[in-house]
């Protein structure tokens, strides 16, 4: 009889962990706490959560014996009647301390003033009918930071059901929704609507809402163009043009505020926000909600000019997209990345009504992963 034997790789037991060779031919070290805590039996197939509680171990976990059997590492633990069988292919994913692959961690694509015709557009009824289209919508929000939803129902409910396709409505201290409504009185021809400078919304919140929705219900006024710019495009160029200014704006948190009779919201944020890779992920900027800068006055000699250099750069035509919103459209954009504003106008006739709300970036990414990923437990 011909008996096939699998070569058994030696496992070396140490004080705090063990070492074994893996398929790359290298010997890799694994900590005993990590191995014991992540034993496949530690997780409930039903709840998909960790059901093992490492805090209840009386002593530090330590292997009495360990060997490779077939395609798994088998560990017999000291002081407990427990055996761990851990697939070698699974161990190989964790040899270098590299964060787990995240399908929602997509590279951002910067855009400039000429982007309007290329903004991804999705019809609201089509999104409701097709999960694959919702994936494309969320991808656009992650990669480019904005999208336009067309064919919106002319109702409050239409906005809510649009939000709920990618997350829950996220209230702010102003409530669940906000209305920008300008009824132009035909007898008042001198009515003037001032410009609104480029900003991100509610910077005074500890965690400003991640995704903003602006649903245009009526827009028959002359003028009042919407202004949008990509904070990632501007900040990436600022990093090259002005490295010291970039360092100040990405490292030093400054105060924002929003105060009236019954609220006093405050936060400290860096103007330029970096992600876990050190890449620009967005901005927090609002001239009308920037509190008095309470930094050291000598530091302000450096900070203020850098802040103004960046603020001027944000206004450059190269970055500024201008267009008129149409009734039935909803702008959906990353409130930490896309700065928005409105050109001033002298209104002579018509109505302008926008209804806005927010949802959360992390919840949108969760919905995206759930649609595109196999996840940890389905693999
Ligand atoms: Fe705003």
TL;DR of this structure?
This protein has 379 residues and is α+β, with helices and mostly antiparallel strands. It has nine helices and 22 strands. A hairpin with a 3-residue loop joins strand 1 and strand 2.
Q: Layout of helices and strands, plus pairs?
A:
Elements lengths: L11 E2 L3 E5 L5 E5 H6 L25 E7 L2 E6 L5 E5 H4 L29 E3 H6 L1 H13 L2 E5 L5 H8 L14 E6 L8 E2 L2 E4 L11 E9 L6 E5 H11 L1 H9 L1 E8 L2 E8 L1 E3 L5 E4 L13 H18 L6 E3 L6 E5 L3 E5 L2 E2 L4 E9 L1 H12 L7
Parallel strand pairs: 7-8
Antiparallel strand pairs: 1-2, 2-3, 4-5, 5-6, 8-19, 9-22, 10-21, 11-20, 12-19, 12-22, 13-18, 13-20, 14-15, 16-17
The structure holds fe (ii) ion.
Question: How would you portray this structure in words?
Answer:
The strands form seven sheets. The protein has a six-stranded mixed β-sheet. A four-stranded antiparallel β-sheet has the order 11-20-13-18. The protein is α+β, with helices and mostly antiparallel strands. The protein is elongated, with a radius of gyration of 27 Å. It folds into two domains: 83 residues, NE0471 N-terminal domain-like (2-Layer Sandwich), CATH 3.30.2020; 260 residues, Double-stranded beta-helix (4-Layer Sandwich). The chain has nine helices and 22 strands. The two termini are 37 Å apart. The site of fe (ii) ion has 3 residues, from loops.
């Amino acid at each position: 009889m011909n008996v096939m034997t699998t070569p058994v790789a030696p496992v070396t037991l140490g004080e705090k962990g063990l070492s074994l060779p893996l398929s790359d031919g290298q010997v890799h070290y694994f900590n005993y706490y990590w191995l014991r805590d992540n034993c496949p039996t530690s997780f409930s197939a039903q709840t998909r959560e960790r059901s093992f509680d490492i805090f209840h171990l009386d002593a530090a976990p330590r292997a009495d014996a360990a060997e490779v059997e077939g395609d798994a590492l088998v560990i017999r633990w000291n002081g407990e009647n427990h055996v761990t069988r851990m697939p070698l292919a699974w161990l190989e994913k964790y040899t270098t301390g590299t964060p787990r692959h995240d399908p929602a961690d997509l590279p951002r694509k910067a855009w400039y003033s000429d982007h309007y015709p290329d903004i991804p557009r999705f019809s609201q009824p089509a999104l409701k009918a097709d999960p694959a289209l919702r994936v494309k919508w969320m991808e656009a929000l992650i990669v480019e930071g904005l999208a336009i939803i067309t064919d919106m129902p002319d109702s409050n409910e239409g906005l809510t059901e649009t939000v709920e396709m990618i997350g829950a409505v996220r209230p702010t201290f102003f409530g669940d929704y906000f209305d920008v409504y300008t009824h132009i009185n035909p007898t008042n021809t001198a009515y003037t609507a001032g410009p609104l400078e480029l900003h991100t919304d509610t910077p005074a919140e500890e965690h400003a809402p991640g995704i903003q929705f602006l649903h245009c219900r009526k827009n028959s006024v002359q003028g009042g163009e919407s202004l949008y710019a990509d904070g990632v495009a501007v900040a990436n160029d600022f990093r090259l043009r002005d490295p010291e200014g970039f360092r100040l704006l990405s490292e030093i948190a400054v105060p924002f505020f929003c105060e009236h009779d019954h609220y006093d919201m405050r936060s400290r944020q860096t103007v330029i926000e970096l992600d876990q890779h050190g890449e620009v992920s967005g901005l927090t900027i609002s001239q009308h909600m920037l509190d008095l800068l309470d930094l050291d006055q000598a530091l302000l000699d450096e900070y203020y000019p850098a802040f103004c250099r960046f603020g001027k750069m944000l206004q450059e035509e190269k970055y500024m997209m201008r267009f008129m919103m149409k009734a039935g459209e909803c702008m959906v954009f990353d409130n930490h990345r896309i700065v928005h504003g409105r050109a001033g106008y002298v209104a002579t006739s018509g109505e302008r009504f926008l209804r806005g709300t927010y949802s959360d970036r992390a919840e949108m990414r969760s919905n995206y992963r759930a649609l595109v990923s196999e996840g940890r437990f389905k693999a």
